[in-house]
Amino acid sequence: MSETVYTIIRALLIIISLFFITKLLGKKQLSKLSFFEYIVGITVGDIAGSISMDSALNMKEGIISIIIWTSIPLIISFFSLRSKRFRDFVEGTPTIFIKNGNLIEEHLRKEKYSLDELLEQLRTKSIFRVEDIEFATLEANGELSVLLKKSKQPLLVEDMIDTPPVEKEVYSIIMDGKLNDKAMDKCKLSKKWVESALNKRGLLLEEVFLAQVDHNGTLTFDFYDDTKSESKS
């Protein structure tokens, strides 16, 4: 067998292996990668390229190395889905850069985000005035989410009827069937209040996938069981 044919066969086998590994990892790999997943992707690509081109390398050991590297994100995902604390540690948490039109400088320094970078991101969203922003948050995946003040948002029919209310932050007080103590502290809600709200609806904490509360105290639920229809207080 010629060296060229052997190289082609090795490359095809690597491509097929990477295809099935990508399918196994899921669609997240095709959209937004975490910092750790980005590192894994680069490393796996480098290993795959090396063993497909260098016939001196053992292909079996190369594929085993790829499998080991790609199993790490799967293990992390497994534990991340079961523990919010672990998920926050691995993936990070959102950071508020702008609140009520005011920059939070210490958060910018913490994330090593320059003012020029922030303003550039805002311009790509057609926002040129910081004071027009109610909230700007750097998400864990590096995306910048922006909520404009109500008076700066596109005009809707209901806005022509009622006086535009001031937008307030929405807090996720239950995540993955567990109370989010940090969110409850921010919105000044007690564990007893949440338990009472659940009892009124005949709900168990473990049944709730996500519960959010706004500044009016309105609760919105999303359940593990999608057949449940309860949504608001």
Q: How is this structure best described in words?
A:
The chain contains nine helices and eight strands. By secondary structure, it is of the alpha+beta class. The chain folds into three domains: 86 residues; 69 residues, 2-Layer Sandwich (CRO Repressor); 53 residues, 2-Layer Sandwich (CRO Repressor). A hairpin with a 5-residue loop joins strand 7 and strand 8. Helix 2 packs antiparallel against helix 3. The longest helix has 23 residues. The termini are far apart. The model has no long low-confidence stretch (mean pLDDT 81).
Main-sheet strand order equals 2-1-3-4
Largest sheet: 4 strands, antiparallel
Fraction of residues in H or I helices: 40-55%
* First-last Cα distance: 72 Å
Kindly state the mean pLDDT as a whole number? 81
The number of domains is: 3
Number of strands: 8
Instruction: Round the Cα radius of gyration to an integer and report it.
Output: 24 Å
Question: Structural class of the helices, strands and pairings?
Answer: alpha+beta
Unreliable segments of 5+ consecutive residues:
none
> What portion of residues belong to β-strands?
15-25%
- Quaternary arrangement of the chains shown? single chain
The best one-word shape is extended
How many helix segments? 9
Order of helices and strands: HHHHEEHHEEHEEHHEE
Domain YetF C-terminal: 82-214
Keywords: Cell membrane, Membrane, Transmembrane, Transmembrane helix
Family: Belongs to the UPF0702 family.
Subcellular location: Cell membrane
